[in-house]
Each structure stands twice: as structure tokens, then as C-alpha cells.
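REQUEST FORM: STRUCTURE PREDICTION
Request ID: SP-0412
Submitted by: Lab K.M.
Chain count: 1
Length (residues): 234
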Amino acid sequence: MIITGHRGAANLVAENTLLSMQTAIDLGVDQIETDVHLTKDQQLVIMHDQTVDRTTNGTGRVAESTLAQIKRLDAGEGQSVPTLLEVIDLVRTQSPTIILQIELKGPDTAEPVVQMVEDQAFNQRVILTSFVHSRLVETHRLNPNLRCGALWTEPPADACLQAIGMGAEAIHINHQHLTAELVQQAHQAGLKIRAWNPDTVEEMQQMIDLGVDATGSNRPDLLIQLCRGAYSPE
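STATUS: Completed
RESULT:
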């Protein structure tokens, strides 16, 4: 099973920072998941929320702040908010194989993300995801060769058909709403199925037992130990 570090290693290090990404890489993940928004001056920055309030020492909306303003903030543990380019550079420098899973979190992010991925010749090492499926449709229109994953918390009955219709190659489902039937449906439809975000050993084991293709977690250290037979309860 492919192991994804959610926002790097979000429950171990300040989320979506370069330190969090590096921690996930050092742990041995196969993929890193992160989120992008556009700043006021149209720069792609790594941030989950629409505002910087929760994860930095600042306040305000990302879309109403310039890159320079956001770069002055502390994102935790002395880390600054990284740009997407900085994350791509880190992943490329640190590993020849790790995949970067980029969630198109902010509006109007599809085109600039596709452009950056193409400019950086990083096409084969990204998966673009979104809950806003029109962004995946746009991504597929811009570059049908890029891998896309449709995000749902609780999937509709026709999730697989919807995913295929928008050009996605996978469905990404909250672990609480994953079933053996859905895994079978996805695989029969030729889709990958990826779980997010089991953070306890019990939840992780359920995903392993279901046979999902990949699992993302805020505790990639535990997931790695469990998948590789090294987990030992305290």
C-alpha cells in the first residue's frame, strides 16, 4: 500500500511547512499531500485554510495578502509558509521517486498549478486533487496526461462514474466512509482508491484490510511501522 504523509507529517511537525515535508521524507513516505492557494499577487503558496489564522502567527485571507506579507509569518517552529515551487524543489532534491499530491484548495488554482508543474517538468510526479470537481475538469482540459483524484468525504453512489467523467484516475475518500464494496467498485472501474486520514493504528489497519491503493495520514510514522511490520504497541 502506498503511504502518503498528510500535509507532510501534520501531527508531528507544523503542517504544510518544509520541515513537515522533510520529516515525512525522512520517515520514508511514498507520497506527500499538500494544499495550494493563490496570494493577492498570484503566487502559489502552501496553505490549507483560506486564512492564515490557524496555522501562523498572522491573520487575514491568503487571497488578500501578498507573498511578501505571507513570507513574514511564522508557520510554526520558526518555519515560513512555503511556496509550491519550494516544495517541488525539496521533493525533487530529496527523492527521485516521491509523488507530490497537490490539493487545489483555492479558487483559480488549476491553471497556474498545471503551468508550474509543466514548467518544472514534474508531470510524472504529481497527483492533483480537489473537492471542487470543476477544478479537476479544468486540469484535465489543460493537460489530460496529468493524474487527478476526486475528493469526497462521503462519496455518492455514483462516485466512480463521476470520477471517470471528470477525467480522474482515482477516488479519494474519508476513511470513515470506505467500504469493501466501494473498493471493489473502484477497482472494477479501473480506478485507484485512496483513503484519508486514519490516524490511529486501528483505523489504519482497517484500510490495509480493505485493500485500498494508498492511505494518507497525519501520523505517517505509525502507518509506515504498521505496513512494514515494525509496529510495536507500547
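NOTES: The first strand starts at residue 2 and ends at 6.
Reviewed by: T.R.
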